[in-house]
Amino acid sequence: MDLDKIRSYLNMIFIVLAIASVILYFVADYRTFIYVCGTAIFLKVMEFIIRFTNR
Q1: Which of 53, 52, 42 is nearest to 10 (CA)?
Q2: What are the counts of helices (DSSP H) followed by strands (DSSP E) for the chain?
Q3: What pLDDT shows up at residue 23?
Q4: pTM over the 0.85 mark
Q5: What is the pLDDT of residues 13-39, one digit of tens each?
Q6: Taking the CB of the first residue and of the last residue of the chain, which one, N or C, has fewer CB atoms within 10 A?
Q7: CB 51 within 8 A of CB 7
Q8: Using CA atoms, how far apart are residues 39 and 31, in angstroms rounded to an integer?
């Protein structure tokens, strides 16, 4: 699979999780918010590493 396609998928999942974490901040408990937000940040870091290690 092409690395640009992987980066695109990671970005799409990040955006969905970021929106979900904002919603969860207001409607769910704090632990659920932290798990979803932490997963979103982890995916963004992975995309960042792929972007800068494959030039």
Answers
A1: 42
A2: 2, 0
A3: 96
A4: yes
A5: 999 999 999 999 999 999 999 999 999
A6: C
A7: yes
A8: 12
